[in-house]
Amino acid sequence: MKAVIPYVFAVLMISSGMAGAEAAVLRAHVSVNAEVVRLGDLFADAGAEAGRAVAPSPPAGASQVFDAEELREIARRAGLRWTPRTRYDRVTVERAAVHLQHDEILARVRAALIEAGMPGERKVALSQRDMAVSVPPGREDDVRVEGARYDERTGRFAAALVVPKGADASDRQHLTGRIHEMVQVPVLTRRINRGDVISRGDIDMVELKQDGVPRDAVLDPAGIVGKTPRRLIGAGMPLRPADLQAPVIISKGSLVTLVVRTDRMLITARGKALEDAADGEIVRVLNIRSRSTVQGVVDGPGHVIVNSPTLGR
After folding, report:
1. Average pLDDT for residues 51-75, to the nearest whole number?
2. Dihedral sign, CA of 267, 271, 275, 276?
């Protein structure tokens, strides 16, 4: 009986050890913020070996999948008695990261270009429109721009973005883009139809790239207020003088009064406008009585000043 007791005790100890080893639970998904993946990241209750490094961590913001066979081998090397239940057992390890978006990167590029001599009022545009990078938490300030340079003649620039990837590793990304001179331009805030008179409230000042603004664009709102479009004009577009005209106050076919003023007399006659005209414009008018055509200057609604004292008689 005495010989049986040590044997039973030994069996119980082995069974207890196996039960403890098998108590480790496989994690499905884990996020790490370290340079290595540890046994405890993959298995819950990994015991004294939980802090054991088993693989390098993926880059910041990236993930790595450990499949059933890899997990079996990791457990074997660590002395963890674990076997996969199915071949589909796996753990996804994601590296924690802070994401710097396009605008944050652009701000750093702009600062570097200003330091390189670029005038501060210019606008910077990256060729990489969806640019974004991921860095380990706490390493945001280590993202830097190096070698920024630009060509004043072409407006193009180049630089390198240095992105930390780990304790001693970094990645260099080549950046390119354009520098634009900007100009303040008056534009319409709403769509305005032909014949509608533009008021100051219809105008907004916006900053546009100079190379996208017509050379003859109207830059002073005073050149727009009180005018009317020659055709329908949409909002937000630079305007040219050819797009605008003074409001029509004499319409083609309307009856007007022809007026001749001299030092001694005032002569008037009835006429019919042969074309639309704005105040101050020259207009052709048919003298209804003589059936002859005269030219005069519009002087208010329905009035045309004619220089000829005969009024075409």
Report:
1. 94
2. positive
Mean pLDDT of 101-109: 95
CA-to-CA distance for 229 and 60, rounded, in angstroms?
56
> 303-305 and 255-261 as β-strands: parallel, antiparallel, unpaired?
parallel
Domain 248-305 has CATH 2.30.30.760: yes
CB 312 within 8 A of CB 284: no
| Helix %, strand %, coil % of the chain (to 5) | 20, 35, 40
Residues comprising the chain, all counted: 313
Average confidence (pLDDT) over 272-280? 92
Q: For the chain, which residues make up each domain, given as ranges? A: 4-95, 99-180, 183-245, 248-305
Q: What percent of the chain has pLDDT above 70?
A: 90
Residue 271 near residue 287, CB atoms below 8 Å: yes
Rg from Cα positions in the chain: 41
The residues, ordered by sequence, that sit 6+ positions from 132 with a Cβ below 8 Å of its Cβ are 99, 100, 101, 102, 105
pTM of the model: 0.59
Cα separation values, 26 from 32, 73, 77, 90, Å: 16, 14, 16, 8
Beta bridge partners of 175: 159
Per the model's pLDDT, the better-predicted residue between 13 and 100 turns out to be 100
What are the b/e assignments for 204-236, b being 16+ CB within 10 Å?
eeeebeeeeeeeebbeebeebeebbbeeebeee
d(CA 273, CA 252): 5
> What architecture does CATH give domain 183-245?
Alpha-Beta Complex (3.90)
Q: Which two tokens stand for residue 167?
A: 């304790």
Question: Which residue reads 């499905």 in tokens?
Answer: 28
Contact yes or no for 67/84 (Cβ under 8 A) = no
Show the tokens assigned to 83. 């076997």
